[in-house]
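Input.
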Amino acid sequence: MKRVSGQNGESGQSQPQLGGQCDWRPLFPFESRELEIEGHRYRYVDQGQGEPLLLVHGNPTWSFYWRALIAGLADRYRLIAVDHMGCGRSDKPQDYPYCLAQHAQNLRRLIEHLDLRRVTLVAHDWGGAIGLSAAVADPSRFARLVLMNTAAFRSRRMPWRIAACRLPGVGRLAVQGLNAFARAATWMATTQHGGLPSAVSSGLLAPYDSWQNRVAIHRFVRDIPTSAGHPSYPALLELEQKLPELGRLPVLLVWGMRDWCFTPAFLQRFLEFFPLAEVCRLNEAGHYVMEDAPREVLAAVDAFLARHPLAMEPA
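Output.
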């Protein structure tokens, strides 16, 4: 196992070995660093130098999802791609409060640990609610928002394919036992004929190779707050109420228009909160917009950053 020296006070740690049927590792040659949070290792990729772009994934992906942005922008920006606790290369404790508030708190711990300022948040799926929760908690650290096929507000919309994974007993067996949620996403979350290429599928699935290692995937599915009685409902409601406070920031909404989960209706809802947002509609992309249209997304993000340069910091 290769060892990597940490920075900003982290100790060098061996890199976790992830499996996979097809060799996906050449697609993601980035080593991870770690921050210990209450005895658990919270891992992240930290590549490049300059203005920080904080990349926050959703469920059931991990930092591997952002590889095209990391490779394409690390020559000009600092790309920090987290693995939520229970995901990717991070630890996967079985008895852990996998919920929106905890994930947001972990992200805030990393932001503070690295003392990130003038951050551009780039978020997808659950990463939107998690990243935006961190942003409304400390808005002075954030400068721009890039949101992709996500939500950060209450909604009663739930596709039957996700609702089925929440059924008592059978839902857990399917998601955590058979890996049905993550495996199905490799062809249902993309518009590519026949699903994602085998190396990409293997990369996305690599961290989730056992019942124990799929605990967070199942808990993410269970954590969708559809009623006021859900434990995460107060956190989501608070986020929704504070979203307009971020309207002062430049916002780019990148949307795969063929997403059956975060449909264009979610895009329209975001425009109610951020009426001045720029929009990049990708008509042939699905939920995994970074997989279906990586070049288009990279170009859109790159151009957005250039259109909204950050003011020089005072000397």
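Residues 51 and 77 are 5 Å apart (CA to CA).
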